[in-house]
Specification:
The structure is a single chain. With about 375 residues, this protein is of the alpha+beta class. Helix content is about 45%, strand content about 10%. It is built from 14 helices and eight strands. The strands form two sheets. Strands 1, 2, 3, 4, 5 and 6 form a six-stranded antiparallel β-sheet that branches. A two-stranded antiparallel ribbon has the order 7-8. The longest helix is centred in the N-terminal third of the chain and has 17 residues. The protein is globular and about 70 Å long. The N and C termini lie far apart (about 45 Å). The relative contact order is 0.08. Keywords: ATP-binding, Kinase, Nucleotide-binding, Transferase. InterPro entries: Kinase-like_dom_sf, Prot_kinase_dom, Ser-Thr/Tyr_kinase_cat_dom, Ser/Thr_kinase_AS, Ser/Thr_Kinases-Pseudokinases. GO terms for molecular function: ATP binding; protein serine/threonine kinase activity.
Length: about 375
């Protein structure tokens, strides 16, 4: 099949016009981008950029500028974001605008390590503190996957989502920079502030953040207390979302699944089941598996402990395969875990993914339980 080269040329020409400020009318933007990006074979087109003497980095930067002048809620904006993600994935490049504009100095050692990343503490020229998540990348296509995920993470904007400031390639090749959260993660915060923390308010923020991700077709893939950071206002911010494709590379090298790593206690049975069945194919997290993980986070919020705290991972897998779940903790109704909320929790961790409510349903029901008559989105 012949590659439609004219479509690539016209797209690049148009994007240069945007970068030069020659096109400013919103209607022109919509019409011309629709023509340039309308083909189903867009990803195939961009693979051919160098043969047309089109610099991929310039093309990516110009597409990024085009996106920034479009209405975020518009269909064409979403199509352009997908196009940018595909293009960055093809070439393993990111827009220049995604690089942080301040100089960071990191410490001598990582301050924390996770399943597929290390966290470094860094400061800028003014002494402001940042967290730098450095991904461990082993496979040849890792940079491409990293770039695709950065595009998504950078564009998520919600009070309950950890805001990514950008990347710092001068510091680490594959990393993401965010503000340092002095309050730590959800469990740390709960255990330091047990006497006065509003657990329902924390849950509200977690649910709202997950609702935002799912509305934007983003699967978190590793929802747990350790990946929920608390900002200076005491609000939860979901972190490490959308990195399941990178985790896939890490765990596939050892012939395992992400659920067999440090997240088995929060992983849905359909993910954990791929371990016991010795499946060679990676089982991808879904919005339904996110809902299961949310149920485990609810348990954490009211107990201050991880799910199945007295069991090792292998025991947890056996318990889950039998359909066992955490018991309702005693004396928690005064904290907000009323019968209706516990019933919702049980529905969220149903063995069958299809029987779990979606996040919009969870949000509506949670709000009806904690504040009848008031709906939040």
């Amino acid at each position: 099949m012949t590659t439609p080269r004219l479509r690539v040329d016209s797209s690049a020409k148009y994007l240069r016009a945007i970068a030069n400020g020659d096109i400013t009318a919103p209607q022109e933007v919509v019409e011309l981008l629709t023509k340039a990006l309308g083909a189903k074979d867009y990803a195939e087109c961009v693979k051919d950029l160098p043969s047309h003497n089109i610099d991929p980095q310039s093309y990516i930067d110009e597409l990024d500028k085009a996106i920034n002048i479009l209405t975020p809620e518009s269909d064409i904006h979403e199509r352009c974001v997908r196009a940018l993600r595909k293009t960055c994935g093809v070439y393993g490049l990111l827009p220049d605008s995604h690089e942080v504009k301040f100089v960071l100095t990191a410490g001598e050692h990582a301050v924390a390590s996770g399943g597929f990343s290390d966290i470094w503490k860094a400061t800028d020229e003014d002494g402001e503190v940042f967290a730098v998540k450095v991904l461990r990348m082993y496979q040849n296509n890792a940079a491409q996957k990293y770039c695709r995920e950065v595009i998504i993470s950078k564009r998520m904007n919600h009070p309950n989502i950890l805001q990514i400031e950008g990347v710092a390639p001068g510091l680490f090749p594959c990393c993401m920079v965010s503000r340092w959260m002095e309050n730590g993660n959800l469990l740390e915060y709960l255990n330091r502030n047990q006497a006065f923390v509003d657990r329902l308010d924390l849950l509200r923020g977690v649910i709202r953040g997950l609702n935002y991700l799912h509305k934007h077709q983003v699967v978190h893939g590793d929802l747990k207390s350790y990946n929920i950071l608390i900002n200076e206002f005491g609000a939860p911010c979901l972190a490490d979302f959308g990195l399941s494709s990178i985790a896939e590379d890490i765990y596939s090298m050892s012939g395992s699944n992400a659920a067999s790593g440090g997240s088995v206690r929060w992983s849905a049975p359909e993910l954990v089941g791929s371990i016991t069945a010795r499946q060679e194919r990676w089982v991808h997290p879904t919005t339904q598996s996110d809902i299961y993980s949310l149920a485990m986070v609810i348990v954490e919020v009211f107990t201050g402990k991880i799910p199945f705290p007295d069991a090792i991972n292998v025991q947890v897998i056996i318990l889950m395969s039998k359909g066992d779940r955490p018991s309702k903790p005693p004396g928690v109704e005064a904290l907000g875990l009323v019968p209706a909320l516990w019933k919702l929790t049980e529905e969220c961790w149903h063995q069958s993914p299809e029987r779990r409510p979606d996040i919009a349903n969870v949000l509506r029901r949670f709000q009806a339980i904690v504040e009848p008559g008031l709906f939040i989105d």
